[in-house]
Structures are given as structure tokens and as C-alpha cells.
Amino acid sequence: MTERVLLKEVRPYGEGEPVDVLVEDGMIARVGASIDVDADEIVHADGAIALPGFVDLHTHLREPGREDAETIESGSVAAALGGFTSVFAMANTDPVADNAVVVEHVWRRGREVGLVDVHPVGAVTVGLKGEKLAEMGTMAKSSAGVRVFSDDGLCVHDPLLMRRALEYTGALGGVLAQHAEDPRLTVDAQAHEGPNAARLGLTGWPAPAEESIVARDCLLAGHTGGSLHVCHVSTRGTADILRWWKSGEDRGGTVSAEVTPHHLLLTDELLETYDPVNKVNPPLRTDADAQALRQALADGTVDCVATDHAPHAAQDKCCEWSAARPGMLGLQTALGVVASTMVVPGLLDWRGVARVMSENPARIANLGDQGRPIAEGEPANLVLVDPEHRWTVRGEELASIAANTPFEGMELPGRVLTTMLRGRITAHEGKARQ
Ligand SMILES: NC(=O)N[C@@H](CC(=O)O)C(=O)O
Ligand SMILES: [Zn+2]
Ligand SMILES: [Zn+2]
């Protein structure tokens, strides 16, 4: 049976007069003024902005192992409500996703829930130990079809291992997503190394711990012809290195990078609160860093936004700062934070948001059916956004099992009205539809 959904009065990319979009059998069948046909469902969008569904290259779904913080189901609900149609589930689960059995489990469970495409990320090294390469080929060939590999949470810091990892992922047509943080440049780091951490007596991550790894890995990507993706860029210096790299010709290899919403908005001034909800890796940096990151996202130096959605159970966040785990929720607040940091100040228009939250991440991960134009004959992976709607973040009201949002009580612009995955409405007016 043909499933038909009619979206009345949407503005693709926030441009021009509202149009109607007819979706049939998972595809965009027609785009035009005043389409009047029978449909199974009619969504009155009242001029809401239509964008291609968001793609998150960096999500922690915690299943298997920490279902007290998040499950593939609860995380999928959060993703659909946040406007995402694809998420990449990081490998630092328990057991680690370093073999075909675990990645196939994550992939299958994601399909069962069916709210968002869950793409398992494969670990680079066995057990994330940074010693021996994991069976990347087996994970790539499994039904999960793994294409993104990462030891995220930890840095692949051994240079020879990193070189080999880039060679292997390159041969598999994959991407290596690096958590760039050289652990040997500090001891027991808890925050950004600077005056604010010093005042509290906390040891910090110095900016060069990130920058030296990024510079090295860019050179290795060029040398091996591999594909490097830099996770959660957090410093001005990293933006400068990426800008230098991207301005060169014939470097060989490919380098892409992501920035998180929290690094665009928040700074280490928050250390003063001593509230572990603000503890994250890489740490919140200075205002100059955040400004440089917004600029780098606007000018394309940083390709995309990724949430690094990192749920933690209450007991792992309610303790003393140094005992708390790093990480914060991000799926449902990403759009609002990007709207407030990038759209409101005029650094990006909505077409730019489509680029950094959908088209570029889909391209980096080589997803053929996502991040596509809103046009007839294209797959109907869409999100409708009401840009005027402001809402207040309440951790308890978010779909995640954990509630560790640093944006608690903040009013954000831009609300997801509807999310659609292959023509099926997965979220509408704040409710997921399973
Ligand atoms: N970002 C974090 O602070 N934590 C992440 C790991 C990571 O992304 O490095 C986590 O898994 O909790
Ligand atoms: Zn990380
Ligand atoms: Zn992460």
C-alpha cells in the first residue's frame, strides 16, 4: 500500500515562499504550490523550515553495558526528537564494539527500534587499549557494514599504530575518527589547562595535547592517503592547523573535522560552578577558542557539527569533580545551540545549517541516502524546524535515561516540529512514533 504524507506550507532551507511537499513510498514525489491530494497524513507546517534530516557522526548510545545511562531505544527517541535521521554509535561500550558480534548487535537493535539509522562505529584497537588493531575488515564486511572507526574516549596516540590504522581504514574505504588528545602531555587532566583550572587546583589538558595530535594525523593522512576525521575540535590552534591543511593542494588523503554544540557555546568560565555536569573531554576552553570554532564552522574549516552525546548515570555525575565522568547530553539540544550560536548572529543561514548538520556529515561517512537535496525523486529524510519557537531545556524532560545536560534552564531558539525517516514520521510535536 502506498503510504502518502502531505507536508503543507514548508520552506525548504528557509528560503522563498512556502510550498507543499508530497511524500510517497519513502520518497519526495512532488514539491509545489498547493498540492491537493488524499494522503494518509497531512502535516500543517505553517511555514516551518524544511531541512534534510540531521546526521550525527558522534553519539554514545551506551548499549551494551551502561543501559542505566542510555539504551539504543532511548537514544533513538532522543535522536528523532532532535531532528536526526542517522547517528553513529561510538564503540566505547561494554563489551567494546571491536568485533563483528557487537557491531551487528547494535546495528540490528537500531533497526528494530526503527526511529533513526544507527550506524555502529568500530573500534580501531582491541578493547580500546591502543595496542593492537581490531578486526576492522571483519566489521566492515559484517551486516553492519562498518565504515567509521574510532577509539573515541581515548586517543590512538602511538604513531605507528595510527599510521597502520589509517592505511587499513583507507583500504576499506572507511574513515578514522580520532579523539585527539595526547595523554602523555599531562597527568590526570580534569579541565582546560589555564588560569580557571589553576584557581581550583585542577590539572588541565593543555591545548597542544590536542593540536600536536591533529597536526601529526593530518600529515599521516597525507602520507598514507587515508581518511582522517577529527572528533570534537576544541581549540583555536586546531582550527588554524586544519585551515593550513585545507589550504594546501595535493596533500593526499582526506581530512575532515567536527565541532560540538557545547564547544561552540560554553567556556571554562563554568569551572567556577564546580558542577560536574560541565566536565567533558575535550574540556570546555576559553572564549577565544569558542569564537574561533564558530568562525571555523562558518568558513568551512570545520566541516560539521557532531553532538558527542554522552549520557552518564546520575551517580557518575553527582560526585566530586575529579571523580565525575566526562561527557554531556547533546541530541535534543544540538539544533537549538547551533541556532543560537550560528544562525542568530548571522554566521550561518539555514542552508548552512543543512550543510553542517546533514550534507557534510553524510558525505564524510559516505551515506548515499542522507543529506540529499529537498527535491522530487530524493529520499524523504527530513526535519521540519520552527525557528520562532523558543523552549527551555529541562534535563528531566529529555528522552535520554540520563539527564546530564549543561544547558539546563537555558532558553533555546528553534524547535523540531517533525522528523521523517524514509517517508515515515519518527517524531512529531515532541513525541516519537515507534
Ligand atoms: N566526551 C566525553 O567527555 N566523554 C565521552 C568520550 C569522548 O567523547 O571522548 C564518553 O564516552 O563519555
Ligand atoms: Zn572523544
Ligand atoms: Zn565521544
Detailed description of the structure:
By secondary structure, the protein is an alpha/beta fold. The chain has a single domain, classed as Metal-dependent hydrolases (TIM Barrel), CATH 3.20.20.140. Helix content is 27%, strand content 23%. It is built from 11 helices and 18 strands. The chain has helices spanning 72-81, 100-113, 136-141, 159-171, 195-199, 207-224, 236-246, 261-265, 287-298, 334-343, 350-364, and strands at residues 4-12, 19-24, 27-32, 41-52, 54-59, 84-89, 117-120, 148-150, 175-178, 191-192, 204-205, 227-230, 254-259, 304-305, 382-392, 411-421, 424-428, 431-432. It has an 8-stranded mixed beta sheet with strand order 3-2-1-4-15-16-17-18. α4 (159-171) crosses α6 (207-224), α6 (207-224) runs parallel beside α7 and α7 runs parallel beside α9. It is globular, with a radius of gyration of 21 Å. The model has no long low-confidence stretch (mean pLDDT 98). Bound molecules: N-carbamoyl-L-aspartate (NCD) and zinc ion (2 copies). One zinc ion is lined by residues 58, 60, 90, 152, 308, 310.
